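I keep forgetting this: the sequence line spells out the residues, with the fold written below as integer tokens. I include a record here:
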Amino acid sequence: KVARQLPTKDFVDATLSVQVTLDWYFDAIERGLAELFAEGGDVVNVCVLGHSIGGWVARAYLGGLGGSSSAVYRLAKDRITSLVTLGTPHTSPKSALVDQTRGLLYEIAASPACSSRALVNRGVKVTCVGSLGLRGKLLTTELEELVAATSYLPLVGRFGPDVRGDEIVPTELAFMEAPARRVEIERCSETGSAVRHAHVLPTPWNL
């Protein structure tokens, strides 16, 4: 469904609209919330957990960029008490070689209602979890290091010993501003393995 926006002028100009482009994500969120409220009643507290793009889609929804005025959204504003993002890119710096979200993340980051301060003031505790388990290298025999380098370079404009992340998202992009809680992890306490964006080889079909 996002692909419908690919050939448009807004896509080329990196000015995609959050409300128009992500409407089906917001609809899915509201369907899930409606089920929770139907089962738990209107006094249930909800924690939203978002991985990768899911983290900033949830942030946009909570900030009202979905444009919803439904009863579910009004109730969600009162009953969602926490947001946890995992491996979510929350910023697109000027050093980035390309805006891979084609303007979507810029709109979210620029919206005061989507800031951690605004969410916390509404009673939503915000926690961002980012990995620093993997460095990127181009001259390497390790596939993960090669994937990391080709992921980090367009996102922050560089790679090297000082750029770490989860193989897809550099650590420096994975956090919202204070007062959001910042949690950095490197290795799994159970397996000792580096914490990755996904425990499969990342492809366009499984990200």
